[in-house]
Structure of Toprim domain-containing protein:
Amino acid sequence: MTTETESDFRNAIAEHGPAPAEIVADGNVHRYDIDEPGDKAGWYLLHGDGVPAGVFGNWKTGVSTTWCAKQSHEMTEAEQAENRWRIEDARLQREEEKAKSQARARTKAVDMLAMAGPAPADHPYLVMKGVAPAGLKVLNGNILVPVVDDTGAVCSLQTMSPDGQKLFLTGGRIKGCSYTIPGNGDLYIGEGFATMASIHAATGGTCICAFNAGNLESVVKTVREKNPTAPITICGDDDRWTNGNPGRTKATAAAEKYRCRVVFPEFNSLDAKPTDFNDLAMEKGLQKVKRQIEAAGPAENVWPDPMPLPDGLPPVASFAFELLPETLRPWASDIVERMQCPPDFVAAAIMAALACIIGRKIGIRPQLATDWTVVVNQWAMLIGRPGVLKSPAMEAALAPVKRLAAMALERYQNEAVEYERTKIAEKLRAEAAEKAARAALKKNPDADLSHILGFEKSEAPTMARYMANDTTAAALGELHRQNPNGLLVFRDELVSLLKMLDREENAEARGFYLTGWNGDSAYTFDRITRGMNLHIPAVCISLLGSTQPARIAQYVKAVVNGIGDDGLLQRFGMTVWPDTGGKWKDVDRWPDSEAKNAAFKVFDRLSRMDPFTIGAHQDNGPDGAPDGIPFLRFDEAGLSLFRDWRHDLETRLRSGDMHPALESHLSKYRKLVPGIALICHLADGHNGPVGRPKVLQALAWAEYLETHARRLYASVEAPGTVTARAIIAKIRKGALPTLLTVREVYRRKWSGLTDLETIKSGLKVLVDHDWMLETQKNTGGRPTIEYQLNPRTEGLK
């Protein structure tokens, strides 16, 4: 029986084209026929539980559409996060299925071509269309047209039977692929083989078959990229008999976007419902085809619409309190409302504070069977202009930690008083023992003194520390040795610390901090301080501080240019750089005591936490003794979600599409995400394995933090944007021509335009946003790259 959800989803599919007869809401990819029986070109995936959501599309066109039973504004943050990850899960399933289908089609196509022979000129299909074989092959009576990608590799086949029936291999790739009939230097692009074979016979040009109107733009894009200055003519079909005339609309759009001529066949009679240049050739002959193509003018708009030039910084996601542990949301919200500060600052500081208290008490193993253990310590950086309340936000978030520190100091002072009393008693006991030992030795020089001198001595109390401020690395190491659970380093101005660690004489300190980020690695100071060689079995440093945009931008620029490229900056996974506009209101009231006390209880519980009472496990060493820190793992649902996310992350990291600095930053999310999941799990008082809800919460954190990381590293691109605007300003003042070269800009030596690489980066921004066209001018020697201003930028800012 069809449910209302399945019916609504099917109706949504039907609005875009043929829909399957039956919908299965099981979260898996299902395929169905669209154009003809057995093509399996349609696909869908529907999750029926929770807020129903799904995706559907067409393999042939590559178009897909998402669907949800609720509008975004009707969903909670948790539901929105769940919906986003369902869509991502669907994308991964779709891509996996698509890759398998394309691989099968590719193998089949290669095998069929190997078995095929040359197509004869008298093949019924070729005779019917009046065209030559043009290098095609035939197998079992069917013409084979190779579907080839831009590298020349065969991806699939189109078969054409003697009676004209055309079929592509099931699941084979079509988008971006084509078949080329080689000719002279003129380039012609159209849809079907017969159409382009007729144009080749009429013009002698190189004719490229895109197979269908939906694939025209992809093929034209590839050809234009390989031939940036060559004239290209798109020979479109006039599908006047088809709703929307896709042949004409797609050809015109591609011509406008990629600066091509476009031409459509004109017929004296429409009785036979002709559409393409093969129909024209069969009706009026090849000379008619040639004359119509030669008479074609350029597309009406050969220049694309320019995109807005980017601002210096990209947008960031706003903070949602649902990211925080549920137990701490009222407290955090109360702080933000009273201070009127960005919630991002309070939240990041809270997460660093929680990480400091948990420290090395317990870790998480993100995989099912390995010993890879993540320690939850966090490095948080708050970025904002002076006066946006970064410091007060951090102070408020650290209040529970400082309360624990005050309690620890009081305990230490009481223990110190007791220790002084004990020391006096031990001194007297030692003096008495010494006298007794001397007396015993007088009687018997070989007397056993162990029962006289073997009394135990008390150890001096150690004050529990949670935080350290302005201290040297060696002193921090000594504090750490006394507090093996780890420490939070709190620096109000972080860039000063980073620059200090960059100096060559502080290489040892830098190494100590880098090791401390791991949370589980040993470190030994090579220099002996105050007579002791500092060895720390496992360094665990959480780091919290703030800085200003101008200071961090300068530091980031140095990092991305190769200075300090060991990933110190990239370890600040909890970096927030929020927008600080909006309305201010005067809030003058007492803090929410109930929320504050509840938060203090969370921190107190975590400080006294026994990991084994909440289901933690611990390895045993070779001698059978406990070894390493206790740990939890994900439950089955949480592990599945984490694996899917990590697969996507690792794929992105290997794509080569990101700046190396950002790539390095996001690679640290392998530790960030499981760590956040465990923090939220423990702060909310859960026991046992970490479940799917907390993994979702951590993934929402990662999605949010990535936007802030992109803003952090946007200084890599910001100079290009500034330069781009400077070049446009010079052109509009008449100081530069509308057609220029890099040298023409460089030799003027204007302020901000004195560096070749900077000028090139600015021109690249203009080209990428369609403000300028990059062309290659052949002068007989080394080609010259020219940049032509898009006339449609007039009046744009």
Remarks:
- The chain has a mean pLDDT of 88.
- The radius of gyration is 35 Å.
- The chain has five domains: 4-102, 116-294, 325-405+464-578+597-715, 417-453, 717-793.
- The chain is about 45% helix and 15% strand.
